[in-house]
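Hi V.,

Quick status before I head out on leave. The structure for the redesign project is tokenized and pasted below; the design run finished overnight.
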């Protein structure tokens, strides 16, 4: 290791790794390695990238460097890796002050390929030679003919238009910008769509030249790998070519506010939304800086303790006064530690009342003390989160976590271990430490902002109209030569996007061979046991002492008209009073003993016959083995003693749940629209819509808006469902953990089982009729999410593994090129399930009609698809993880339970994998006519911008507001 200087070494239990910090001697590049027994190997390189303006340059550089480099000559090596790698993670991320490029793979050869491509991308990108990369990913004038309307287009531009469509994002950003005006954090590193078109190509290149140097880099390696070999590879191939430079990547901080600042903003709302109280109120503080480990922990601790926990005193006080329908916290991911409380669906005119309630609540906590059970429960919740690690993507999570101290010139190890700060807080609990901290950091802290956000009728439409008018003025002011230049660039960009990479360019992309692929899939087969007559599945996994327990009850007796009531009921039990506990006390008892208890309705579809399905309710709990008994006692309390007459509390929860679904609609718009589309042609998808999709949302919204009229019937219906939910019939228990712990808890599980009654359950089937409703569902948004698809089995195709390969081809070539690269959408793709259900999707998409045309031409594309054996091989390899994905221990338990219920076997998966490995073009071509027929069925669903939807009104049978 002669090229690196070891700075620090420590074994850290919290990440189960031997951690070493190095400095690269020649360049000063910072290096962190985490050695452990995880076969999932990870690499990351990041840079401190403070934004200088709100023009999105940090974000646009992040996109562009992955579009070709010195060694890797295709237009988009990133997409080539997506389609051809065994990667378990492959992405890039822009934060407020850093940009990171992490990858991971379980295959060593693949891992080195990924590392090589990413290092070449960040240090030697093609952006200096090819302006079209900037035009495609950032922004450009779009004008193909002189008589056309001049428009802005670009992937990041449209992505950020989608971000700025969300009122929650607007409120969050406004708070940060107000707290940190005239600083690196006072502008949006992602880019304000109004400012992105001010970014020039020269400024873009200069930003990369300034910050993307090894002397400003943070390099990370993780897993069961030879770290010396990996570091030697990085040095010889990249770092050795650079000399140390003084990079000024200083984060500019603002002067701390000496008095509270008041801010008022507006956000766009439709005429339907304007009828409701949808204002926001928010109070935010800067409580410290990330170079204090204690402040980092306490900021997050206070967010949970005071605002987000079910028993949180601020949340409780707000709800008791009927001040808002939802309350949540926001925290920053930057050097200043911001904490804000946000009231959603409130009345902005009650600002003074909100601030008074907030002050009095905090004052009461400081003077009279915080409930010790709440403190203990919240501390235990954090301890549990840390013990679990980062789940499936822990290798990447640890990198991001390390940067929380590393980026600010502290040791990266400080952010990886937590027992010291947990113990410090625990030791000080009885000395009023938390109360005094609240007094200093919140109650007496004038470094704060009060924010009011009100809806403005059709603000997005007004701004879009102004933009079109301004662009028309720009076009009119252009000389003929300037206009011709814009047309030339637009046409040349489209030509560039349409051209296939040359054979020489493709050969530069590293790839695996089919001989590198194991035909087997990982077998997590559980041990099948029994507790009396109840099936008990035990998955032996290393879980850091945690036991994941799922108790799966058969609820297939639920009538169709009861589904929404059942689903809502399962969302609120555990959050309402019981006979022996108030809901606050119950919350404390849950988290003192466990890492959480949830009740989830789930539909399982038979792997051999999709008309055969099972509706089940899974009680999920995570705890240590010693606390399983207490956890199950709490579950008993919930399932036998919940007070369903808790009218006020249930109304609070109903409003929160409705608000959270509304938030996720835009954040996960592609998943939302796929679920709507599938409900048109799939019985199971329609059931899922009533459990947690659009039908469920409509049920909740109706109940919320007409609560007084509906309450009596809802209470009666809930009681009827509640009485029959927890039966012993067909009970299955699945656990994950150390096998000795799983055997030890059998007696505790038997106590739970013995209290259950056999109810002689009768299966309730539901009528279903396929119907292409073709709905255009609008909300306040600047972009749309569009889906089109059908059930391929109904057209004669049974699932085969090569369909997964075909989906990869469509995702990473055809749909990506046509909808993302050319159309400017942030994303596009297709899903093809084992049950034959097919659905396309677009994400943050500015074009509806063109996207539908692209979907309609899928069949023609497939029928005429041609490619070399080498290209096909890459697509095959890139499909392999679909058959054997990276899983966390908890997910392994879920998979084992699902496979047991549905009858899906390892042999089935390996058969599909072999089919995928034997994919041939002629067979894929044969699917073309079926895809064409599927699109001609014309099952279409679209969600998003009202103006974009109405501009293509002829595509829909019905256009209506989502609200």
């Amino acid at each position: 290791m002669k090229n690196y200087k070891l700075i620090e070494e420590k074994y850290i239990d919290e990440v189960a790794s031997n951690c070493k910090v190095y400095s690269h001697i020649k360049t000063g590049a910072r290096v962190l390695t985490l050695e452990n027994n995880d076969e999932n190997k990870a690499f990351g390189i990041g840079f401190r990238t403070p934004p200088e303006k709100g023009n999105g340059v940090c974000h646009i550089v992040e996109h562009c460097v992955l579009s070709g480099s010195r060694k890797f000559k295709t237009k988009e090596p990133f997409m080539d890796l997506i389609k051809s790698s065994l990667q378990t993670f492959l992405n890039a991320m822009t934060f407020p002050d850093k940009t990171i490029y992490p990858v991971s793979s379980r295959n060593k050869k693949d891992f080195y390929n990924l590392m090589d491509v990413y290092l070449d991308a960040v240090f030697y990108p093609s952006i200096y030679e090819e302006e079209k990369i900037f035009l495609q990913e950032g922004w450009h004038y779009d004008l193909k003919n002189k008589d056309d309307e001049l428009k802005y287009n670009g992937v990041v531009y449209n992505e950020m238009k989608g971000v700025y469509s969300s009122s929650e994002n607007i409120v969050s950003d406004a708070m940060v910008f107000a707290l940190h005006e005239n600083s690196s954090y006072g502008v949006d590193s992602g880019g304000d769509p109004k400012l992105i078109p001010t970014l020039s190509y020269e400024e873009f290149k200069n930003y990369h030249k300034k910050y993307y140097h090894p002397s400003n880099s943070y390099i990370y390696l993780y897993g069961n790998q030879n770290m010396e070999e990996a570091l030697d590879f990085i040095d010889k191939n990249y770092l050795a070519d650079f000399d140390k430079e003084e990079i000024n990547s200083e984060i500019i901080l603002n002067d701390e506010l000496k008095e509270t600042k008041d801010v008022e903003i507006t956000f766009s709302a439709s005429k339907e939304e304007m009828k409701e109280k949808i204002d926001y109120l928010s109070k935010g503080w800067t409580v410290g800086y990330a170079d204090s480990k204690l402040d980092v922990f306490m900021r997050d601790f206070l967010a949970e303790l005071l605002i987000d926990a079910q028993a949180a005193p601020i949340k409780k006080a707000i709800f008791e006064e009927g001040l808002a329908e939802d309350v949540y916290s926001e925290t920053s991911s930057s050097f200043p530690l911001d904490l804000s409380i946000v009231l959603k669906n409130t009345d902005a005119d009650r600002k003074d009342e909100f601030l008074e309630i907030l002050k009095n609540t905090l004052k009461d906590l400081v003077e009279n003390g915080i409930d010790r059970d709440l403190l203990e429960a919240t501390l235990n919740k954090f301890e549990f989160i840390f013990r679990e690690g980062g789940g499936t993507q822990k290798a990447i999570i640890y990198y991001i976590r390390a940067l929380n101290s590393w980026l600010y010139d502290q040791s990266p190890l400080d952010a990886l271990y937590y027992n010291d700060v947990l113990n410090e807080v625990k030791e000080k609990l009885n000395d009023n430490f938390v109360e005094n901290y609240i007094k200093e950091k919140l109650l007496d802290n004038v470094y704060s902002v009060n924010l009011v956000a009100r809806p403005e009728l059709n603000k997005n439409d007004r701004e879009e109209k102004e933009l079109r008018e301004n662009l028309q003025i720009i076009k009119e002011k252009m000389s003929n030569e300037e206009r011709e230049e814009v047309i030339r660039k637009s046409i040349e960009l489209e030509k560039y996007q349409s051209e296939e990479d040359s054979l020489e360019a493709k050969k530069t992309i590293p790839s695996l061979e089919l001989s590198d692929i194991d035909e087997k899939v990982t077998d997590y087969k559980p041990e099948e046991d029994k507790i009396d007559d109840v099936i008990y599945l035990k998955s032996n996994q290393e879980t850091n002492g945690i036991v994941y327990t799922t108790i799966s009850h058969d609820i297939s007796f639920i009538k169709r008209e009861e589904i929404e009531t059942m689903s809502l009921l399962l969302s609120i039990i555990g959050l309402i009073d019981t006979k022996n506990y108030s809901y606050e006390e119950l919350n404390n008892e849950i988290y003192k003993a466990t890492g959480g208890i949830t009740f989830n309705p789930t539909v399982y579809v038979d792997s051999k016959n999709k008309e055969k399905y099972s509706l089940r309710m899974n009680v999920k709990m995570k705890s240590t083995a010693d606390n399983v008994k207490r956890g199950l006692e709490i579950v008993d309390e919930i399932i036998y003693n919940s007070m369903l007459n808790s009218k006020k509390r249930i109304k609070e929860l109903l409003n929160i749940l409705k608000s959270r679904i509304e938030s996720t609609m835009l954040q996960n718009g592609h998943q939302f629209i796929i679920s709507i589309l599938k409900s048109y042609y799939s019985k199971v998808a329609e059931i899922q819509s009533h459990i947690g999709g659009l039908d469920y949302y409509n049920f909740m919204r109706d109940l919320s808006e007409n609560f007084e009229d509906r309450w009596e019937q809802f209470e009666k219906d809930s009681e009827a469902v509640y009485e029959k939910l927890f039966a012993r019939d067909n009970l299955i228990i699945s656990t994950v953990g150390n096998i000795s712990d799983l055997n030890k808890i059998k007696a505790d599980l038997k106590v739970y089982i013995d209290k259950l009654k056999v109810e002689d359950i009768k299966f309730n089937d539901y009528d279903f009729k396929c119907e292409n409703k073709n709905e255009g569902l609008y909300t306040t948004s600047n972009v749309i999410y569009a889906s089109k698809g059908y059930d391929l089995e109904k057209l004669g195709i049974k699932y085969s593994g090569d369909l997964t390969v075909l989906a990869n081809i469509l995702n990473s070539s055809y749909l990506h090129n046509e909808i993302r690269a050319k159309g400017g959408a942030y994303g596009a793709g297709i899903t093809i399930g084992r049950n034959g259900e097919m659905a396309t999707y677009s994400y943050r998409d500015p074009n509806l009609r063109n996207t539908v045309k692209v979907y309609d031409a899928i069949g023609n594309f497939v029928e005429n698809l041609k490619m070399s054996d080498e290209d096909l091989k890459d697509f095959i390899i890139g499909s392999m993880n679909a058959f054997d994905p990276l899983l966390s221990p908890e997910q392994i338990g879920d998979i084992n339970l699902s496979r047991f219920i549905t009858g899906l076997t390892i042999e089935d998966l390996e058969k599909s994998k072999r089919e995928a490995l034997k994919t041939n073009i002629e067979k894929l071509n044969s699917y073309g006519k079926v895809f064409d027929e599927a699109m001609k069925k014309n099952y279409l669903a679209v969600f998003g911008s009202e103006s974009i939807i109405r501009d293509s009104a002829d595509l829909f049978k019905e256009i209506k507001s989502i609200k």
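Above is the designed sequence. The longest helix spans residues 801-822.

G. will cover questions while I'm gone.

Best,
W.
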